[in-house]
Amino acid sequence: MARLKGFEKLTNVDEALAMFFKALKPRSLSSEPVAIENALGRVTAEDVVARTDLPQFDRSAVDGYAVIAEDTFEASQFKPKTLRLTRRDRLHQVQAKQVWTGNLLPKGANAVIMLEHTRMVRNEIEIVGSVTPSENVSKKGEDVKRGEVAVEAGTRLQAHHLGLLAALGITEFNVVRKPRIAIISTGNELMELGGKPSRDQIINSNRYVISGLCRELNAEPVYLGIVGDDEKEIRTKIVEGLEKADAVITTGGTSVGAADLVPIVVNKLGTPGIVVHGIAMRPGMPTALGILEGKPVFVLSGYPVAATIGFEVFARPTILKLLGVETVPRPRVDARLARRVAGALGRRVYLRVRAFEQEGELHAMPILTKGSGLLSSLTKANGYVVIPENREGLEKGENVTVHLFSPVAGGRK
Amino acid sequence: MARLKGFEKLTNVDEALAMFFKALKPRSLSSEPVAIENALGRVTAEDVVARTDLPQFDRSAVDGYAVIAEDTFEASQFKPKTLRLTRRDRLHQVQAKQVWTGNLLPKGANAVIMLEHTRMVRNEIEIVGSVTPSENVSKKGEDVKRGEVAVEAGTRLQAHHLGLLAALGITEFNVVRKPRIAIISTGNELMELGGKPSRDQIINSNRYVISGLCRELNAEPVYLGIVGDDEKEIRTKIVEGLEKADAVITTGGTSVGAADLVPIVVNKLGTPGIVVHGIAMRPGMPTALGILEGKPVFVLSGYPVAATIGFEVFARPTILKLLGVETVPRPRVDARLARRVAGALGRRVYLRVRAFEQEGELHAMPILTKGSGLLSSLTKANGYVVIPENREGLEKGENVTVHLFSPVAGGRK
Q: How large is the greatest C-alpha to C-alpha distance in chain A, in angstroms?
């Protein structure tokens, strides 16, 4: 009977995450080689070290003439100097050789004077400005030196990282293998998208939400299907998930009621089983965090919004650790709260808001709903604001930090 | 000879973009149907309208008992009330029916009392609290009403959008076709990654940079290879690009020197050809923007950093318009500049910076380099700061806005 009275104790969010990480000791997954063509968005498994200097040689950084800088000193528009042109690979005093951007510097040359500051006169050039040694030269190793770390381990690779690796002649390197995340949807009322739901059925939308959230992190969702509220069925699927994946996420069957089956199954399946169940947060209070065979098991609410927030707060940082990525906070902006909102003393509230710009100032409009089931409260929002446990609410006009999951409308320049 | 003296006039960045858009009139591409499984990151081509209410019926939002709210009024812990249990689909006065989260409400019921506020006594329940009409009920259409727009046209689909569409029973819908972007690398000095460069060769890294930048926007790069500094070769490739793609991006051959071939070819190929050439920006000054057969042609610098900034400033907003996405500014944070930097009067400078947190404050450290060739200036940075045309420089400690292309290190909570 006691179970029906709700959770006896709710655990603070930070404490829950710390307990969970302490028990889990998440480490990044093994690595695999990847070709540069397929590396965008992957995470480097180790420091990638330059095996050559970049540039490999002193090169001209402009179109112009390679010169000995000292020959140009004191040249000006009013007092031009004259240099003899050569086509040889070695420059002697008072000589110049035409070079285009990227060309090797001839031996003896130590600077390049731009075309714009010269004038060709038969076989000579007149220079109307001076250059200092190394001016307009890309020095050997200036971008990256041989032996230097070009891209650090744990870097989520963007376009410019790939450019640098290509420039260094690196075609393949080791990245962290994509975490596979098993997804199990529980609930007698669930049906798959595609058919026509009867009056008692609800389409399984969490499958798409959780798969999408995994993909957005470049993890690989492994969807295992719907199971009814049946201990044996749930057990079979979780075992399958532990076999096939690096982590398991279930949705549904977490609230303290007759259907509170998933945490029971997780506890029966091994140790430590459920590490924390019942978290001082809204939505997502009935979330449970477990560990089986050293793998994380996230037991999320069946409510889509609560499942999303549960994923954000617990699964996201864990998956990032599996990927070996240090910290990836969401982009944040400071905004003024557009209306008063109630908090929930003792619980951390994740308030969905729409941040928007008006007259050069950012505002955050709370998306108010009663339940944690309303998906539209997420699609109407572009971020969330955290109401701390010790606040009864936030005041209209108060400065808040918005954690963005999509860009602010209005386009502040 | 005049051409060798540089551009006669540089066009302001905003003016250049406005001129280009005015001439181009970019419109979003045609649409194509996509299955929900493959829709993450795609952009809706039209409003997606709900064909059912969500929820479709009044449902219980909690585990508990469906009741007639009026029967519970004035019940309290000290003065419990008793209701008779029924299993029928219609509730009469002073009756209650057990329901789980998501269950249909029986006819006659208008609220649900949570399990925690009840106690079962044989065939009756004792209730120790009251509920108001609609309490703990997910009302029909509460999330989305039939006929309402569930997801607006021009929305970049995230996990929660897919969840909402699935919940509404929508399996397929129209998204904007992925823009195909032809990429042409020009330059006699270029070689493809894979072989060993001779002293005169440079590995084509721009191919990877520009392809990656396209993919990050969910556009499809169509790489057409390297061409030498030869008018005919360049012409052939641009014609191929216009046939195969929705836009063409070239890198290299833009500076005002002997190799300034791409803008010449674009102008010979049709009208209007080059709309603007020479932009008051650093890096990226020699960028040219053209239009052929109504398609944008971006003639970017051969320097990787200048090409990246040219893409950011001109190609990115154009591709977003082709995708039908309204505004997608990069995430921004305000920070204090960690050291003085010089600007370039009359030019807009895109200064690469590393934003980081120290003692609760955000700082932006300029990544100082002399050239626009250094890819490491991008990989060491996580964003850029714009130095306006009318500033000689920015002061140490000055407040600046950082446009982030990757998250801030340090993890501000």
A: 103
